[in-house]
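Internal ticket #5521
Category: modeling
Description: The requester needs a full-assembly model to guide mutagenesis choices. All entity lines are attached below as received. Residue total reported by intake: 551.
Assigned to: D.W.
Attached entities:
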Amino acid sequence: MGKRSRKLVSKILGRVWRLFRRWLFLMLSFGPMPEHIAFILDGNRRYAKKKKLKMGAGHNVGFNSLVAVLRYCYELGVKYVTVYAFSIDNFNRKPEEVQGLMALMKEKIDELLEEEDTIVHKFGLRIDFWGRLDLLSESARLAAERAMAATANNTGPVLCVCVAYTSTDEIARAIKKSCSKKREEEAAGARGSIAVADLEKNFDSAHCPDPDILIRTSGETRLSNFLLWQSALTHLQNPRPLWPEFSLRNLIWAILKYQKAHPYLEARRRRLAKKQN
Amino acid sequence: MRAEFRVAAPIRRTSLSACRSLLRTLFRNPSFVIIYSAIISDGFGWRYHLGLDPPSTEIPVPRDFEVDTGFLLVFAASDGQSHAYGLDKLNSLAVVVDSEEAKNTTKIKQLLCWLSSIGIKYIILYDMQGVLKQTIGIDLESLTNTSMTPCSVIDAKTASSLFHFGKMAIEIISLSDGKEGVAKAASFLYSEHMKDDSEICHRSEPDFTESDVANALKATGSAGDEPDLLLVYGPARCHLGFPAWRLRYTEIVHMGRLRSMNFAAILYVCQVIR
């Protein structure tokens, strides 16, 4: 009897919490809501050290935190979420840590695709991977390609995962693609130099709007070569909690700060668009 | 909730410890976040009050100067004291200013004075619209006899400017030095690639690396030092299109509005970040 009543109580509390969350998000939506939020998931290793966990366990906890934050973002109506999962510079870490991260990536991608009650199925999520997938391990690369293929036709919100990514590498690859296309156009008789718009069409993020908010946890103030081109008019935030400690309260606070800065950023965006036209 | 809102506003600037304990209590209540947003005014001022306190040691604040070009002569002659403030490792510093606030040339000149007095060797000034090039740039140009090429008012917005004062250098850039600079470098790389391949049928696919792009940026005049620290003066923490290639590992700190800038805050940030 005791077990049944405990189950009932937790079910009721879960429903009350969901209702409260829905009310809270409704209140927030009276102000301008971001369409695209980017996260730099900083602090997993420091969290593991703080809680005296095994090496690599911090990333596991970080993944659980990511799933929770994604759920809140999509319930809030955020259409695009981009996460900086692994930088090209991170390949310089210890080989066992890099291998552990590749294995974790494969395991979590398979879990998201195969299990029924995940955010992919609940929200009709489309997953996209940005970066140099050819630098990943074979298993991680195949898992990423499988995830992109399996969710390509989904019409829900979009999760962009940056792996083996740096912004300068993205710019160099965009220049390479633009030059190839320019060569084909010149062969067909067209003339002209490469413009900013030509480069932007060849970015990994070409189909996404620029991020409205870029959050780096752990209080760090650097962008570490992440979305440097796309973040010209993005509200940069650096809350103090480590990534595994980032919660709903921190997300709501981030959105409130964005809503305060929104009139200024929107005015600058309109002025820039006017100048470009 | 209504009572909390009424209590929060009047005590805003009078009792800081009462503010802190009230905020700690309210933070436990999720609905607080909606009310608190109404009492935030100057973001950077509150950051200081809530924990990022400037150093309590006595800091010799540089004298305020009169608003004329005469101050620039004093500024040029000032001897930086980076060792006195422990800032030897801070080689270059960038300042991003909102274009509307950049029109306040008095404040910009005062800021340059302060930065030179603490011994920053390389200062990069940036604003989106190129207002600084047209105001401060013209003053510095007349002082150093460096010509910004080309010289017309419209083109002054697009020319990048580098001025040397003894051991110190000041660079003034705008949005045209960012994305457009990279597009110019891309066109340069493309034309070099087409020049290299002699026959159409043997033209290889372009394969550019990051170092090729960096060299192209240098060749087209869009390269420069990567600042260690970037101070943002404006209503929001946003780099406003600062050249992406120079922002990779730069610490970005929001200093609030230009009108409320103060020397202690700049010194504190420089000492924390070094």
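Resolution: model delivered.
Comment from assignee: Chain A touches chain B through 50 residues (CB under 8 Å).
Ticket closed.
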